[in-house]
Amino acid sequence: MSSHQIAYVQKRRSTRIYNAIALVIQGSDAFRAPYVEQVSTVTVNCHGCRYQSKYEVVQGDMVSLEVKQSSEGSATYSCQAQVKWVQRLLAKDSCFEIAVELAAPGNIWGIVS
To answer: CB-based contacts of 14: which residues, under 8 Å, 6+ apart?
Structure first.
């Protein structure tokens, strides 16, 4: 591992996990129109997640996340998150990859460490 890679790993606040977790995202798109969308995460960690969306959003905007735990009878967890970056995906029609940071860090994903 190069010294640059080691420095990057040391900057991470929590471990990134590649895991598809069902979410309901609610917010306003780039045109300020409200939307609700069901998505799956691409990656998660204790500070946020990355997911793909058909809606373009604005960096810095707040969205609401609703996570339903996969086990039956588990409660739904809701929280706020701030959009940290948005990237248009070239391979898909009008799709975006979005990274958000949780307002209150924690394991909202129900993943056992």
So the answer is: 45, 46, 47, 105
Measured CA to CA, the distance from residue 39 to residue 21 in angstroms comes to: 8
> Helix and strand tally (H, E) in the chain?
1, 7
28 contacts 34 by C-beta, under 8 angstroms: yes
Tens of pLDDT, residue by residue over 30-62, are 999 999 999 999 999 999 999 999 999 999 999
Do residues 19 and 43 touch, judged by C-beta distance below 8 A?
A: yes
Angle at 99 between CA 112 and CA 23, to 5 degrees: 55
Alpha-carbon dihedral sign for residues 14, 21, 113, 64: positive
